[in-house]
Each structure stands twice: as C-alpha cells, then as structure tokens.
Design goal:
Strand order of the largest sheet: 1-2-3-4-6-8
Radius of gyration: 17 Å
Order of helices and strands: EEHEHHEEHEEHHHHEHHHH
Strand content: 5-15%
Shape: globular
Number of strands: 8
Structural class: alpha/beta
Helix content: 40-55%
Distance between the termini: 17 Å
CATH superfamily: 2-enoyl-CoA Hydratase, Chain A, domain 1
Number of domains: 1
Largest sheet: 6 strands, mixed
Length: about 260
C-alpha cells in the first residue's frame, strides 16, 4: 500500500482517509497533507462535519514514522517533523467543523493525539491505546495538551510514564472514546447512522458547539513551539536512535 490522503464527500460530510504501509504511522508529508486537507474541508460552506479515518482493519495509527525519525539529523528538520503533528491537531481544533474520528484498531503515540483531537470518537473493542514515546527516549509533548483536555493531567502523566496499553473501555470511561463497538461492522453501523444524523443538523448550531467545546484552548498554539522543541531535541540523541532501531528489530522478529 502506498501512503495517501484522500477525500470523499457524502451528503454534507467530508470523509478524510489516510493510510501508510507500516501500521498507518505518519511521515512528515502525510502530516502536512492531513493538516491542509482538514483546514480546506473545514472552510467549505457545504461541509457540516469531517470524518477522519485510517485505512485497513488493523492499527488505527502507530504515531510517528520510525523510518523518518531515523533519517533526522538536525534540529531544524526535527522541529519541522514534530511540527507536523501540531499542525494536524491544531487544524482539527480550529477548522470550525465537528471532527469525528474512527478508530478501528490500536492507537499509539500520535495516534492517541488524533483520537483526543476529535470532537466525537468511535472505536472498537480492539482499539487499545498507549503513549509509547518514552520507549523512544522522548515524550508525548506535542499531543499532550489535547490528551490532557480529555483525561486530565494526572492520567496523562501516568500514560506518559508507564507507556502501557489501556483498553477501549478505559478510553471510553476517560472520555477519549464516545462509542465502542464489538467489532468494526458494529462500530461502522452506528457510525454511519451518526454521520447521517449530523448531516441533517443546523450548520450554525454545530459550528457554535465546536466553538464552545474548545473554549480555553487558544493557548495550545502558544505552547506548541516549546513542546515541538522538546521532542525535536531528544530524538537527535544517539540513545533515541538506538531505541528506535531496537524496536524496529523486535517488530521485524514478530512477523
């Protein structure tokens, strides 16, 4: 599978799908395209809501692309890469349209950020999630404000430290997921009805709900430069590169 971002319009709904070969992990050019597409669709008068989803039936999103992280050798390139995650999340926050996210499988790192950037999130029982950045030698600094908004600082800190997977039910209990289906078909059946219902709602009312729900988050943009720099600096350390290579080797051995 080639990496892609594609858009389809269905009855006032803009469906944005992304996919990459390695568990839908995100390289820089996909992050840039996602951010642009979300803002572009949010600006369209005929769009009432956005559905963000990933390809396949397994992992929703494995976060940052390991291959690209290994290629980064200077701070400017590193900040540009991590800035891509900030662009996507801020696009979800500021696009002016309700953003619904579909999580069909595991979400790690930046994938958790996408789930937490949603206004409404659907998932399956297989959609466990973890902040695994500490395993690389960095932390979930860029996505942090969005995760904290959903689960609180204490739970965010615990996730960032232990890097363990939480179940889909845990995620629902802690306000990340709003609906958890038994499987993909079950989730999609409810999701389809939900999106059809959204398409009939007042566009102005939806816009105002979006505005109200994100009140008090304007400072997220101000936080991003320092948060980006934290991850950008740490990923340049030799220990981080070694950690990534070791994780990649473990993943290869599992296949």
């Amino acid at each position: 599978m080639d990496s892609f971002v594609k858009i389809e319009h269905k009855n006032y709904i803009a469906e944005i799908e992304f996919g990459t070969p390695k568990s839908n992990s995100l390289p820089g050019f996909i992050l840039e395209k996602l951010a642009h597409t979300i803002l572009e669709q949010g600006a369209k008068k005929e769009v009432k809501a956005i559905l963000l989803k990933s390809a396949g039936e397994k992992a929703f999103c494995a976060g940052a692309s390991f291959d690209e992280l290994l290629e980064i050798t200077d701070l400017e390139t590193s900040e540009k890469f991590f800035g891509g995650f900030a662009k996507v999340l801020n696009a979800m926050r500021t696009c002016g349209k309700i953003v619904v996210v579909r999580v069909q499988g595991k979400a790690t790192g930046g994938g958790v950020g996408l789930a937490c950037g949603a206004d409404y999130c659907f998932a399956t029982e297989e959609s466990s999630l973890a902040l695994t950045e500490i395993n690389l030698g960095i932390g979930p600094f860029v996505i942090g404000p969005f995760v904290e908004r959903k689960i609180g600082k204490s739970q965010f800190t615990a996730m960032a430290i232990d890097a363990g997977f939480r179940s889909a039910e845990w995620a629902k209990k802690h306000n990340i997921y709003h609906f958890v289906g038994k499987n993909i078909d079950d989730m999609d059946s409810v999701l389809q009805s939900f999106m059809q219902q959204l398409a009939t709602r007042s566009q102005e009312a939806l816009s105002l709900i979006k505005q109200v729900s994100w009140e008090g988050t304007d400072h997220f943009s101000e936080l991003m430069p320092s948060r980006i720099n934290m991850s950008a600096r740490l990923i340049l350390e030799e220990t981080a590169k070694q950690n990534i290579e070791e994780i990649k080797e473990k993943l290869r051995n599992k296949k």
